[in-house]
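Take a sample.
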Amino acid sequence: MGSDRRIGTELGGYRLGEPLGRGGTSVVYRAEHVRLGRQAALKLLSAAVGEADFRERFLRESQVAAALDHPSIVPVYDAGEAEDGLLYIAMACIEGSDLKTLLAAEGKLPLRRALRIVGQIGAALDAAHARGLVHRDVKPANILVSEDDRAYLSDFGVAKQLASNGTTRTGSFVGTIDYCAPEQIEGRDVDSRTDVYALACVLYECLAGTPPFSRPSEVAVLNAHLHAPPPKLTRAAPETPPALESVIEKALSKSPLDRYPTCGEFLAAARAAAAERRIDRSRLAVSVTLLLLASALGAAAALGLRAVLSDGGAARVITTTIPSAPRGPALDQLLLQSQDGRTLNDAAFALINAHEYKRALPLARKAARTAEKGTVTRGYAIFNLGFTLLHLGRCKESLLPLQLALKLESRSQQKFILPEIKRARACARGAASAPAP
C-alpha cells in the first residue's frame, strides 16, 4: 500500500489518499476535492484490466449510479476520464465497513439488526427497479454499513438497464456466485426478482453465518443454485422463527415466477414472520417438563398452556392441560437457576397465562435481564415484565418496561403494547384501578 505511486497525486480535481479497497476491476481511494475540500471515495479502473468491455462497464456505472437518488444508495459526485485515459468515479465516502467485513468480525447478526440493515438495501433496490435497473451483484461486499447501522448499496457497475438495447452481452455472466440467481447463471433474462434472490441470500448469511448454497468448489455452488433446495434456516440458526424459513425459501425459488415480485414484499413478509409471538418448541418442552416435575409435589388446579407452533407453513395452536405447580418456592427456584432468557421468558409467559403474576414476576425480571440484546426475545421479555407489573397494581413501575418494549418491538406489535401503556398511565394517575391480580 505504501508503494502506491498514485497517493498524493491529483486526478479529476481530487487529491488521492490511502487506498480503501481493491476489487477485480477497480481500486478505491480516500480522496479530497482540491477546491471544495470535500471528502470522497474515488474509484479508479485498475490498470491490470484495460479491456474495452471493462471500460464500457465503468463508464456505464457512473451514468447509472448518478441517475439514482435514494438515501441508501451511495451518492455519486462526479465521474469522467482523465487526460491519461484513466477512468474515475467520485462517490460519498461512507465511514464504517462493508457488510462482509462486519459479518467476518461479528459473526451472525441478531434478527432485528439483520432486518434493519437488509431492509434499507431492499428499499434502495426497489428504487433502482422503479427506474428500470437491476443491480445483479447484490452481496455483503457491496453493502456499506456505518456505525449507526445506516446501510448503503454501492457498485452499480454491473447494473443492467431493462429497457436497453443489448448493452449487456447475451449469455454473459455478471455477478458473484454465492448470491447469483439460477437465471443469471444460465444467461437468461434478469429482472427485479433476480435481486430479490440475491437479497435473500444476503439475509440468510446474516442470520446463519454462511451463504445458503456454500459448497467446497465454485462448480458445486453453481450447481446448488440451479438444483439444490434452499437449506433450512432453523438448522443453521435455531433461534429464528420457523415462519421466516418459509419466507426465505420463497425468495430463493428457482423460478422467478415463484419469488416475491419486489424486495419490499419480501421484507414485509420477513418482518411479519419475525414479529409472530410464539414459543420455541424445544424451549416449550423444557418449561413444560419443569412444570410437570413440580406438579408431582402436590399440585391441584389445572393450568391451560397455549403456544403457537409452526412447521414452516401454517401456524397451529395447541393447548396442553397440566397440573398447576405448588405455591411454594420449589418450582420458582428451579426455573430461576436457568441463565437462558428465552427459557425464562417462556416460563414467565406460561404463568402469566395462568394469572400467576406474583410467581411470574421474578422470572420475567430475569428474562428481561438475560435475553440477548437485539433479539425478538428481548422485546417480548421486557413487555411481559411490564405486563406483569401492571397486573400486580404496580402501575408506575410498569410504564418503563412497556415503553421500552414499544421501542424494541416491530410496528406490527404496537397494537398489543399501546393499550397496556394507556392502562398503565391511567392507573398511575388513579383514574382507573389496576387489573385484578
User: Anything to note?
Assistant: The radius of gyration is 27 Å.
